[in-house]
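During the reporting period the student researcher (J.K.) took over the structure-prediction task from the postdoctoral fellow and processed the backlog of single-chain submissions. One of the processed entries is reproduced below for the supervisory committee.
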Amino acid sequence: LSAENGDALLDKILHTYLRDTPEQFTTLRLAIQHDDSEALRLLAHRLKSGSANVGAQLLASTCRELEQLGRQHTTSGAAALLANMEQQFHAVRQALEAILEKEA
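J.K. obtained the following structure tokens:
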């Protein structure tokens, strides 16, 4: 893998994460509204992995907390965690967009 191909791959991963994460928040919100702890667990796990892949460790950690609620078959407290995650994502988005702008 050349450096140029590596940069292109990184750009694609970052763009995909930035594009897909807001939609995942919407789906998580629906799972919470419908008290669907299994969907909550699965969605939080997926977002945790994606966040860890782009270096968003704090967000990944909060996703882990949300995933644990799903494992405990509850959505109680999930809305507050989701609100925190959305705030954390705002900071992550700014940082990742700055990286992408530098590379452009």
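The committee noted the following: The chain has a mean pLDDT of 94.
J.K. will present the remaining backlog at the next meeting.
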